[in-house]
Recover the amino acids of this structure.
């Protein structure tokens, strides 16, 4: 079964933690190539596992801004297509530098407000309203909205407001200004989201655990087991002990045999004492 295979594999695998956050992996197997493949497979599995578990806050932000960036890319392409179609149908329009500057400023400010709102919504998903970062973002967004209102009011007084009523500007020119404003807005928003995406991607790269293989496993040239020299020394030692025991046993048996022979010899040489006869 799979459990038995894991138990058997763990029996022939060893992992040792050394200095400088290094890990030594060794695998014993009858086939040297398979032993090397198993050791390298441990590293690959560890890298895959870390990649699955390393879904940090930076990784989530990167995924979020990546999705928003893809959406904004589509919207920017649509806005550019609409402006191009309008120019093909009604011709080119010359916009004054003052109106162009107002359009660019308002589009940039509007895009920054939307980008901040997107980041704030992402932040609120994991933080409460009392979070200092949430409160700071809300204050900055409120300030940007105030700047937007001031810019609109100023452009209205100067007569360069691209949002002026249609009665003051030809319909075609007003349509062109609105489409141009949308293009500038999506361009600015796309640029801001791209910056946020790059920051999140860099943060993710810094936080992700990195596993570097210092010495890749290769098939060994020599066997790690059985150790012939070790068994040779053990065999010689056991042979010497067995020889000594055998010699002592033979010597003891020989001593017993000699002792018995001496006893028999003594008995054969023993002389009985003579008895004296008395005549009454």
């Amino acid at each position: 079964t799979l459990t038995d295979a894991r138990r058997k594999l763990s029996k022939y695998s060893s992992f040792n933690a050394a200095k400088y956050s290094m890990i030594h992996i060794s695998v014993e197997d009858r086939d040297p190539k398979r032993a090397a493949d198993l050791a390298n497979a441990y590293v690959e599995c560890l890298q895959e596992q870390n990649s699955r578990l390393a879904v940090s806050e930076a990784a989530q932000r990167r995924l979020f801004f990546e999705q928003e960036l893809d959406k904004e890319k589509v919207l920017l392409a649509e806005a550019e297509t609409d402006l191009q179609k309008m120019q093909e149908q009604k011709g080119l329009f010359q916009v004054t530098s003052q109106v162009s500057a107002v359009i660019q400023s308002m589009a940039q400010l509007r895009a920054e407000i939307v980008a901040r709102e997107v980041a704030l919504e992402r932040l609120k998903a994991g933080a409460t309203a009392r979070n200092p970062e949430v409160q700071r973002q809300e204050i900055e967004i409120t300030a940007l909205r105030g700047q937007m209102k001031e810019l609109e009011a100023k452009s209205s007084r100067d007569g360069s407001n691209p949002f002026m009523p249609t009665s003051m500007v030809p319909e075609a020119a007003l349509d062109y200004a609105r489409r141009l404003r949308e293009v500038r807005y999506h361009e600015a928003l796309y640029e801001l989201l791209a910056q946020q995406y790059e920051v999140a991607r860099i943060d993710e790269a810094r936080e992700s655990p990195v596993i570097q293989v210092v010495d890749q496993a290769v098939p060994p040239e020599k066997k790690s087991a059985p150790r012939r020299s070790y068994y040779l020394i053990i065999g010689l030692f056991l042979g010497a002990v067995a020889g000594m025991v055998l010699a002592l046993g033979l010597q003891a048996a020989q001593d017993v045999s000699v002792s018995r022979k001496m006893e028999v010899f003594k008995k054969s040489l023993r002389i009985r004492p003579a008895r004296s006869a008395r005549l009454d």
